[in-house]
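Hi R.,

Here's the chain you asked about this morning:
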Amino acid sequence: MQLVVNGVAAFLALGGAVACAETVGVGQQAWWYKSMDLAAAHQVTTGTGAVIGVIDSQIDPDVPELRGQHVVPVRNFCGGGATGKGAAAAHGTSVVVNIAGSGVGTAPGGVGVAGVAPDATVRTYAVEDATSTLSSVNCVGADEAEAVASALVTAAADGARVITTSLGGDDSPVLHDAVNAVLRSGAVLIAATGDGPVDRSVRYPAAYPGVVAVAAVDSAGAPWTGNVIEDRKAFVISAPGADIPTGSFQNGRWSSQVIYSGTSEATPLVAGSLALVAAKYPNATGNQLIQTLIHNPAGNRPFGFDTEYGYGIVSPQKMLAVDPTQYPDVNPLLPPEPSAAPTEAPTTAAPAAPNSTPTPAPLAAPKANTDIPPWLLPAGLVFIVASAWASKRWARRS
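And here is the predicted structure, written out as tokens:
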């Protein structure tokens, strides 16, 4: 089975994807950085002490944005090294730069991508081998679902508080077991939902209950036009994902000015945001980090779910203003556990809101509706996932 690049046209058309820093902004001038008000968030914390696990391709820790950062390439579950150069390391390196980039790069003036949590520790776990390219992502001689599952479990065992992946595939017993093990460990698992038109519905592991499934928005705060069109009840949170200066390799050389669009770009921004919260509130559990994520979206949005944004657009500033330990230590994205004895008319309330309301962040999302995802419905209703794991290929999400 072979991994393929999701949204391959956007990935291959690098000539049309590149823009100058003067046009779109790189580093702290990038639209997404300013819309998330990260300069203010970094006055509170830059992520020191938080540990993030990244499941993706090989990475190149020698690109300018990552030199001197707390990035630890751990292992390649497809064989070979955890680090690489050029196309084989492009996707994973971009993801890590979005999280921990120093802001030093190859754009005019030596500017590079500035990450959400530049002082967090990022541990990387490759699930692609060195034969991968931008158009073909390979794990020769191994099953991708098993490789991803092993990487997830290892990242949790290594102590990651937040685990993120911008890969997706189909349902698999081994992958589902690994996701459940990660959730039991207390880590937060974040995954990209997928990109149309290659994906029509949310892929796994994002589609599993309990996982923070990330959709993308554009610079106006509108849902990205490339979000999947089916199974949107799996959406949990949205983040900037359109026209993101994220850096990549061109002709074998790193450029900080390469721009991508997709849920691959949105997902690490959520991971970095939760790392900031974990750094400020080290006693918060993974469940409480998810609680604060969905209760404190950007803008004046009331608590609630819709199939365009999930629970809204991620807001590091609003989350940092609220101590997550006031929330129940319960994953609000999981169906309730069955009672030991039958009860009458079981019901499940939406997660309780805190007693205080933080100051809104600058990027706002529209008002939510009451279309609550099925795993937040009464306990008598079951969220069923199809098991068709052998029918499609694993893919990058952009």
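One quick note: Residues 156 and 184 are 10 Å apart (CA to CA).

Cheers,
M.
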